[in-house]
Amino acid sequence: MQLHISKDINELSKNFADWLVQHADETLQKQDIFTIALSGGSTPKLLHKLLASDEYKNKIDWSKWHFFMGDERFVPYSDDRSNAKMCYETLLNHVPVKEEQIHFFRTENITPEESVENYAQVLHQFFDGKPTGLDVIILGMGDDGHTLSLFPRQTEVIHEATKWTTSFWLEAQGMYRVTMTHPVANHAAQVCFLAAGEGKQEALKEVLEGVYNPDLYPSQIIKPNPGELHWFVDEAAAKLLSH
User: Fold this and answer.
1) Number of H helices and number of E strands within the chain?
2) DSSP 26-43
3) pLDDT per residue over 74-108, tens digit each?
4) Domain span at residue 46?
5) CA 242 to each of CA 127, 204, 209: distance values in angstroms, whole numbers, following the listed order
6) With 70 as the cut, is the pLDDT of residue 243 above it?
7) Strand positions, DSSP E, the chain
8) Is 237 part of any domain?
């Protein structure tokens, strides 16, 4: 595991953007496309805007990038709670990518069960039989230690080891969630957590230094093999860490 500590969320976003652009270039020297799973939440918004800015946009061969989504709230793309809507508004609408390069969960005119079955087929088409799956998966971590739609005490979802995607009703939010499962994240070549702000302090310390208890801190179940695990955090989030 590699820990990258930045001064604040602005520096974190820039440091990760620099790392991502370089890594994508290196990957594309060996293969034809670069696959990346985006994340919802507040932290990636700044990253997206950076990547779409003049400083970064022209450094990226967008025609070779393919975009996936780690998890999604089962709402229409027009809903402000939609991760897809956020990703389109902050990144994808501002860079030259075609619709066929975007592979997100379908959330309209389909049931949650059909949605995850459909998405699993997409993932299998891209990644079956490969030594690693996604080239990069970006993950967030909630103040409660959740990642993707793996929430504390949702043990069936956290420990799903066979299916690549699953759906479930999250009572606390009054909605269905659809998500990649931990085997997909753990099969990625590069797993990159982004965590910023004081609200992450306790969860980050437990996830990185606490007793292994993924039922309480689901982010602990993310242990890529043979890929690499990176944590990009700011000083505020890292305050309680011992190193």
Assistant:
1) 8, 10
2) HHHTTSS-EEEEE--SSH
3) 999 999 999 999 999 999 999 999 999 999 999 99
4) 2-220
5) 38, 11, 8
6) no
7) 2-6, 34-38, 65-69, 71-73, 102-103, 136-140, 165-170, 175-180, 190-195, 228-234
8) no
